[in-house]
Amino acid sequence: xxxxxxxxxxxxxxxxxxxxxxxxxxxxxxxxxxxxxxxxxxxxxxxxxxxxxxxxxxxxxxxxxxxxxxxxxxxxxxxxxxxxxxxxxxxxxxxxxxxxxxxxxxxxxxxxxxxxxxxxxxxxxxxxxxxxxxxxxxxxxxxxxxxxxxxxxxxxxxxxxxxxxxxx
Length: 168
Hints:
The structure is a single chain. By secondary structure, the chain is mostly helical. It has one domain (about 25-150): Winged helix-like DNA-binding domain superfamily/Winged helix DNA-binding domain (Arc Repressor Mutant, subunit A). It contains 6 helices and 3 strands, in the order ααβααββαα. The protein is globular.
């Protein structure tokens, strides 16, 4: 351990930057969950699942594709799907094109819930993330976030659907 140099520690501006980012990473998910729990009894993860299905063609996705969108294991997604199925928000069935896969399908009740809860979620995202920033800062945050995403993985992260909407 005596080989450690000061470069092995974050200090000064690096520490200030990291502490701010780490705090946002801790506080923001809890704030998003709180709003969605209050308004719809959903976690942010569950809302993201419903939102992805709502944006998909035919409001249907293979569970494996949905897990990729949600950055989730299939087991975590399956547990969420069970909760959402019990509420009548989605249903699952074997993929008729290939029975090895399972489809997740957003129900009409799920569509209604997404439509009801999205305005409050958008307002929360704006209040917590976008409104405190200037337009230039918001563009910088987008660019910075995309660069950090690229450092984590070579794949592209979630992007809003093409066309009007894209509020999630």
